[in-house]
Amino acid sequence: MGKIGKQTWRFEKPIYINATGTTVGPLESQGPLKDSFDKWFDKLHCDEKNWEAAERKLLQEAITICLNKGNQTTKNIDIFLAGDLLNQTVTSNFVAREIQIPFLGLFGACSTSMESLALGAQLIDSGYAQTALCGVSSHNGAAERQFRYPTEYGGPTVKTKTFTVTGAGVALLSQKTSHVIVKEAIIGKVVDWGIGDPNNMGTAMAPAAADTIYTFFQDTGYNPQDFDMIVTGDLSSVGSPILKQLLSEKKLDISKNHHDCGLMIYRPNQPVSAGGSGCACSAVVTYGHLVKQLTKGTIKRVLVVATGALLNPTVIMQKETIPCIAHGVVLEAAGGQNS
Amino acid sequence: MVKLNDPKNYSKNMKSYQPSVPYFMNCLKAFLFGGAICVIGQSLQEMYIHSFHFTKDNAGNLTSATLILISALLTGFGVYDKFARYAGAGSLVPVTGFANSITSAGLESKSEGIVLGIATNLFKLAGAVIVFGVVSATVFGTIRLFIEHLLK
């Protein structure tokens, strides 16, 4: 009985997050969560020649840190699940070339963080892997360049625009007991309610997040108050109120425990317009901040819903809209079970 | 109250959830910053005419060249985009914005080489301005020619 309800997976075996690794760029390290991250770079270039190489370094370093913390080597990992925002998921592919772990490349835009975590847990649960490494990365310069304008191009501020987080987050999963347990996961549907403005992804993604969260509570029978936090990936200050309104119309009140990674990672006075976005946004906040809180026991149960805008820069010019998706994972504090 | 759970009308109903666009402040900032750039340009032109004795036309060309150089340098130092975030259209419209679009595209494409990187992508953003600049110059030039002939 792995599947419950329509879209939710409840893992039968206890699957633990044994270790995590997070790396971030300069702006993220000036944010309020600085101390939850393992490593930060003072320069956006991360001492590399170009943005794409910088992103690979972020992911590579996060993997090294994660494996060191989990006392593991690449040889003992059964599967590597990773994705990023760049064309052909080039960062993940190139890092997979270096680490030589059987690899599945994923693309779910900014939802890839929870997509990889859910799949990793599922592969362990079904017995096809004993250890799984799940990771994502994004880089502001590389993403801006691919999806918007050159980094140094000066354009006016758009209030609804989100700012791609520079960083990488990696989690090591296995059945070896640890402080954080992966309980359930929900795979979202692609939802498109007709928003075609790439500078307003919070508004575009809110219905997808609402759909996933609503279905999750229907499937599992949980109530929002069963969770210390319900965290969305990158709805920003624009999408978050819309999400709460969409759910409250369906008699689901998450206003008390809803948080958004895109708003948690930066200070309000940082120049990021509506908030953070990108694969790394939900990944570094979850694997850095939330996993630390769960380990300490200050929070017991959290639902992380990573939201992804599946937009394509070419097709958007052809007047198409933005399909969006959201995947959720439930993490619980495992109490005093030490590894 | 309008229900937001309505996929068909979402793009209309979500409008009340959007942050307001400060049109007046944007216009004021664009006027002040854009005006300031023009004042600098005018001072440069006067300087070229009065201190270096250039003709008005030559001084105008030199002024554009100077502003383009300054803008390109500021882009390279990573200052122009920060300035533009506050100045808005004030930094976008003058020749400095044009120079910024070319320089930033060139800088970004450096990693792919000089020919296929920089040369190919240099006019990625500015290309549209050049195309419509040339087209509209042709159209209005022709109209002017006709009117001049009619008036003779």
TrEMBL record, chain A:
- Select a single GO molecular function from the record's annotations and give it: acyltransferase activity
List the signal peptide residues. Answer: none
The identity of this protein, by name, is Stage V sporulation protein AD
| Record InterPro entries | SpoVAD, SpoVAD_sf, Thiolase-like
Superkingdom to which the source organism belongs: Bacteria
Q: Which SUPFAM superfamilies match?
A: Thiolase-like (SSF53901)
Species source reads Terrilactibacillus tamarindi
Automatic annotation (TrEMBL), chain B:
Answer yes or no on keyword Ribosomal protein: no
Q: Which UniProt keywords apply?
A: Membrane, Transmembrane, Transmembrane helix
Source organism, top-level taxon = Bacteria
**Segments traversing the membrane:** 21-42, 62-80, 125-147
Pfam families from the entry? Answer: SpoVAC_SpoVAEB
**UniProt xrefs under NCBIfam families:** spore_V_AC (TIGR02838)
Q: What is this protein called?
A: Stage V sporulation protein AC
To which species is this protein native? Terrilactibacillus tamarindi
